């Protein structure tokens, strides 16, 4: 059942993105930025955690989870260190994603030739 | 007919003649490809939980890192851009789309050298995601922190 809900919820989030592209005529960069902000907003009310419990990777793989993880890491450190903790923790949960994007992006650019 | 062609009614008039995007078909494609990427992510998550003893919460990190590695490679081989033409938001919204934007920007500027080309332009497309993510998370974090202090 995990896989079914991951498919439905993940695909559903992509449909919202596609509608923003086609109907609202946003650029992909605008869609991705809006989704990150939306993920952070949903985390304020702990709604995104419920979605992750329900859909697993269907909620953690879309880019909305990036905004959720940013705020989540920030709040975890804020509980310990007060308001400075927000700055300490903001990349805590997302560092794996950003570090690997930088590393693999650079390595692929070194190894492969540009196409088209 | 004697209406003057100015910039405003040019946009309105030309809109009628632009081909309408196939809304339903695009959504179906985005749903299927986006859903399949998430199913693959779920598969990776379960693998990391059962074989590498990650907890359910921690398994998100290696899953995202693996997806980013695969998406970077697929971009290098030119496969991800073809998928993007087919799937639209289905390949852009998952975290693999983030990796694709980083890698394709790096590849595109390779001819300008590693420092001024690859490294400087790595976040040319993905930078907006990080900037808006951090700014919104920071503002919301402060609001939520103050809220918790008061109530």
Automatic annotation (TrEMBL), chain A:
Regions crossing the membrane: 6-24, 83-112
Keywords, alphabetical: Membrane, Transmembrane, Transmembrane helix
One Pfam family it belongs to: SpoVAC_SpoVAEB
InterPro entries given in the database record: Spore_V_AE, SpoVA
NCBIfam families assigned to the protein according to its UniProt record, in alphabetical order: spore_V_AE (TIGR02839)
Protein name as it appears in the record: Stage V sporulation protein AE
Native organism taxonomy: Bacteria, Bacillati, Bacillota, Bacilli, Bacillales
From TrEMBL, chain B:
TM region positions: 23-44, 64-80, 87-107, 127-147
Keyword annotations of the record: Membrane, Transmembrane, Transmembrane helix
UniProt keyword annotation of Transmembrane present: yes
Keyword match Membrane: yes
NCBIfam families referenced in this protein's UniProt entry, alphabetically: spore_V_AC
Protein name (Swiss-Prot/TrEMBL): Stage V sporulation protein AC
The organism of origin for this protein: Halobacillus locisalis
């Amino acid at each position: 059942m995990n896989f079914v809900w991951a498919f439905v919820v993940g695909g559903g989030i992509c449909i919202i993105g596609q509608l923003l592209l086609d109907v609202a005529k946003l650029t992909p960069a605008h869609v991705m930025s809006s989704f990150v902000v939306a993920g952070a907003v949903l985390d304020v009310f702990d709604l995104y955690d419920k979605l992750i419990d329900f859909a697993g990777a269907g909620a953690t793989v879309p880019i909305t989870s990036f905004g959720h993880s940013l705020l989540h890491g920030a709040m975890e450190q804020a509980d310990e260190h007060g308001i400075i903790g927000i700055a300490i923790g903001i990349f805590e949960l997302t560092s794996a994603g950003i570090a690997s994007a930088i590393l693999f992006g650079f390595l692929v650019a070194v190894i492969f030739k540009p196409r088209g | 007919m004697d209406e003057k062609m100015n910039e405003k009614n040019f946009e309105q008039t030309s809109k009628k003649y632009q081909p309408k995007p196939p809304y339903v078909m695009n959504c179906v494609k985005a749903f299927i490809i986006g859903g399949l990427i998430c199913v693959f992510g779920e598969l990776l998550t379960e693998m990391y939980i059962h074989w590498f003893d990650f907890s359910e919460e921690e398994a998100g990190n290696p899953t995202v890192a693996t997806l980013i590695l695969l998406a970077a490679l697929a971009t290098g081989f030119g496969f991800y851009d073809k998928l993007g033409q087919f799937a639209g938001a289905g390949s852009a919204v998952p975290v693999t789309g983030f990796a694709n934007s980083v890698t394709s920007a790096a590849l595109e500027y390779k001819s300008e050298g590693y420092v001024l080309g690859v490294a400087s332009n790595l976040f040319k497309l993905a930078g907006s995601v990080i900037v808006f993510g951090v700014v919104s998370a920071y503002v919301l974090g402060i609001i939520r922190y103050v809220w918790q202090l008061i109530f």
